[in-house]
Amino acid sequence: DALFEQFERIGGPSGTLIVLFNMRRIETGDFELNFDTPYDVRLSSFEEQREEERNSLRAYLSVLYLNPRMKVYLRGKKVLTRRILSTLLYPYKYSYTAKNLKACATKEFERCEQKVKEVKEMLRMSSSALGEFEAKHRGQNIHANKTLRIEQRLLAKARADMEAKKEQAEKRASLALKAKNNPIPLTFYFGINIHHRNRYGCMLYNNGRLIEMYVKAAVQKEKNDLMMKCLGVVGVVDVPYSILEPTHNKQSFENKR
User: Fold this and answer.
1) What is its main location (predicted)?
2) What pLDDT score does 133 carry?
């Protein structure tokens, strides 16, 4: 009952309720997330010199997508999304073709083929289960029996879900085959962040979704004059699944190299 009472906090007829639990406390005893700032969620132990996107959820959501198309609201206020490529000064495009792109695409195609086989087998099993149910109760008025009606709907839904997964897996396998036969080079964009020179590094996206941000290049980590010349330089790259696969929490990559 206590769980269902939480849904009453949704004001409209539809919406999403996010419940945070198991929050940690920092050395001062405060929670790691601070909700005191209106319309934002910030880290309690934020660092002034660190990128704002690491301290503020609102700032992070503003650059979450490479080409933002949907509206995002945080604590009742709309997030002003930014297309990061449009904020860079003197943007420079660089195409990079790695030697292992074809090998990565081949491995991805093999994984997709295996996934298609697994989904087809699951679809066959769900279709068989539905067929057995209909054959077992042939001649009966299933719609008059609530239990049988629910069971039939569940079996039909399971088959429909498997058909949708099969189409999705085949589509992904088709794209992987295309990438295998004709590997597409990675396209990097470099520019200067004139608004915040202390925010620099490479923004790594995966299919348009931000995975890692402000990853410093070797020259940007050194404490010398060359490092000072690279301050404010931001790189942006959208890496496909065939090259790097993100982790389940979309905060890093599985097969880093």
Assistant:
1) nucleus
2) 86
